[in-house]
What does this fold into?
Amino acid sequence: MEALEKLFGSAARIKTLKFFLFNTGELFEKETIASRTKISSRILQKELNLFEKIGLIKKRNFFITKERRGGRIQKVRTKGYETVIEHKLFTPLQNLLVKNSPMSSNALVQRLSRHGKLKLVIGAGVFIQDMDSRVDLLIVGDEIKENTLKSTIATLESEIGKQLRYTVLTVQDFKYRLGVYDKLVRDILDYPHQIFLDRIGV
It folds into this structure.
């Protein structure tokens, strides 16, 4: 990441790039992008202006549904940004930033270990560049503090550029599901995946 920061100028630029390279075919308000990338509004606007200027993203109006006071639902016209996948830099940038491993397995396990007694961590999807995977991350352990885990997951998402599909199971639940050939577990184990931590003996 340090080398990429030097190459692209800043961590904020890399985060913004990854966000648009991962999330194609959708329009996002600036506030949504700032929340998911954890970049300040001022810095993010500079990056958005740059990417819009070179034609990698474009801004246009669209409608979103918002809940008003009293529970009233209303369609609101707003402005958002979307990726221009036809841009000549789209594929080269995707190859460089998306298809590289988001982080080392040791770093990932270390960050997740703060939230409970981990026994098994398996990566798929974004972690092995297989966007068709049902789950990106399977976390198995006991005494998992899911509220604090969500915060770490959100930080990982901001760094990777994509919302993670993850599942948390207790050791007992995982072993039961494994024994009854549960579809979710089999969809992970029977298809390409990477084991980051295994204290169960999978």
